[in-house]
Amino acid sequence: MKQSLFESRHQADWQTFSALLDALARGKADRQQCKLFAHDYRRLCQQLALAQARGYSSHLIEQLQQLAMRGHQQFYRHRSPLGAQLIGFLLGGFPRLVRAEWRYVLAASLLFFGSLLGMGALVYAFPELIYSLVDPEQVASMERMYDPDASRLGRFAERGSGDDWVMFGYYIMNNIGIAFQTFASGLLFGLGSLFFLLFNGLMIGAVAGHLTQIGYGATFWSFVVGHGAFELTAIALAGGAGLKLGWALLAPGRLTRGDALRLAAARSVRLIGGVIVFLLMAAFIEAYWSSMTLASPTLKYLVGGGLWLLVLAYLLLAGRGTHAPD
Amino acid sequence: MPSSITTPPAVPHPVLDTRYQVETPEGIDLLLRPAGLVPRALAFAIDLTIRGLLLLVLFIVLGLLGQFGMGLATVLLFLVTWWYMVLFEVFNQGRTPGKQLLGLRVIHDDGTPVGWAASLTRNLLRFVDILPFGYTLGILSCLNHPAFKRLGDLAAGTLVVYRDLPIARPVLPQAESLRAPFALSFSEQRAFQGFAERADSLSSARRAELAAILAEPLQVPAEQAEQQINGIARGLLGST
C-alpha cells in the first residue's frame, strides 16, 4: 500500500485519537470516550510498526511516534487512590519493610544510639568533655532552655507562651531536614549517612550527658522522652535507608552499580515515607505535649515510656497477619 | 509499576544524536530526546525564582497574622523547600513551572509518567547533587552521562526529556510521479522522501549539490537530478 492511501485511510482515526489524548491530558475526558482507548492505542502502535516496516516517510513516522508517545503517557499513568495506599502502608507495609531491611536498620541504630549513649556516659563521667564537641555559647543556651525554673521548655522557651504553632513549624522544618540529609548523603557510598548518624548521636548524647550531670536531668528527660520515641527512631531509620543506598554502590552483587542503586533507592524511599510520618508525629508531640509544664514529670515519663513501647511494638509486630490489610 | 531493571534499549540502527530509545510492551520503539545541562539549569533557575517570590509573599502576608502566621509560614517554607518539585512533577505530568516554560518533562526510564516514589527519590537526592557547592556533583554527572542524568536521576531511574512539538505537514515540491530505475531499500526510500520533505529548508544551491551526488546512479544529467528525486519521492508517496 502506498503511503498516501494509508494516510487517507487512517487520518480520521488519528485525529479522533489525538483529540481524546488532549482531553485526557487536561483531565476532561468522559468515561464513554475512554472505553475504546486501549483498542485505539494498540491499533495506533500496529500502524506505527507497519509504517516503519513499509519504509514510509519520516514525517508520517514521526507523527505516529508522537501520537504513540502521548498515548503511552496516558495509558501507563498511575492513578491509584493515594489515601488507601497510605493507610495500607502504615498498617502493614512500613513495619514489614523495616523488618525486611533489618540489617541496615540495625547497623544505623547501633551507630546512632551507640554513639548517643556512649557520648552521654562519657560526658557524664568527664564533664569538661562537652566543650570539645559543643561550643560554650550553645551549651549556655541549652542550659537556659532546660533550666528547671523556666515555665516552658525546649527550643523557643525564651519566647514565652502561646506559640506552639511556631514550634511545630520549626520542628517539622528542622527534623525532617535532618532526616532527609541523613538519607540523601548515603548516596556518597554511605559515608554521609555514617557522618550524620554519628554526628547527631554524639551531639545529642553530649547535651544529654551534660544536662544530667549539672542537675537539669528531670526537666530534660521529661521533655525529650515523649517525642524522642518517634524522632530518634526516625533518624535511625533514615540513616538505615541511606546506608542501604551506599551499600548498593559498594557491593552491588550480580547487578551493575546503576541497577543495584535503582533497586535500593526504590525500597529506601519507601522507608523515608514512613520516616516522614514518624517525624510529623514527633513534631506534633514535641510542640503540644512535651513543652507543657502542667503535666508532672512522672506522668511524662509514663506517657513517654508508653510511646517507646508503642513504637517498638509497631515496628516489630504490626503487619504480621496473614491477610494484607486493604 | 515500571520495571525496576530496564534492559539496555534495543538499538535497531545506531542513532547519531542523543535520542534515547525505549521499547514498549506493545513492541514499538519510543524515541525520547533527553534534555541537556543548560535547559535544565535554566528551568531550575526559573523554579528557584518562583519559589523565592512565593516565600517572600507568604512571609509578608502571614507575618501580619502574628505568631500563628509565622508557624504556618514555617510549615509552608518546609513544603516549598522539599515538596514543590515533587508535587508539581506528580500532579502536573512531570512538569514544574520552570520545566513547563522550557518544554521539559520528567519521566521514568521506560517512558512512563513519573510517580511518587521516583519523584521523591530524585528530589531528595538533590541534596547530594548540590555538593560540594553549586550543584558540582550534579553537573559533573549530567555532563558525563549519555542521557544527561544527575545523581538523583540515576538512583530514581528518571529522565528529563523535551516535550514533542506538533510538526507541520511538509509540502512536497511539484513533480511528476516517477518510478525508481532500480529497487530501493527502506532506508533509501526514506532518504528520497526525506530529501523531498526537507526541500523548503535547504537552499537551492545545496539542493542541487546534494541531488548531483545521485545523478550517476539515476542515469540523468546533474541538473535534472533534483527533479528526478522529487518525482521518485512523489511516486513512493503514491496518489490519493
UniProtKB/TrEMBL annotation, chain A:
Key words, A-Z: Membrane, Transmembrane, Transmembrane helix
Extent of the signal sequence: none
Transmembrane stretches, start-end: 104-126, 168-189, 228-250, 271-289, 301-319
Membrane keyword on record: yes
Designated name of the protein: Membrane protein
From TrEMBL, chain B:
Transmembrane segment boundaries: 41-65
Entry keyword annotation includes Transmembrane: yes
Example of a GO cellular component annotation carried by this entry: membrane
Membrane topology reported for the UniProt record: Multi-pass membrane protein
Primary location class: membrane
Cell compartments where the protein resides: Membrane
InterPro entries xrefs: RDD
Keywords: Membrane, Transmembrane, Transmembrane helix
Residues annotated as domain RDD: 35-156
Full protein name: Membrane protein
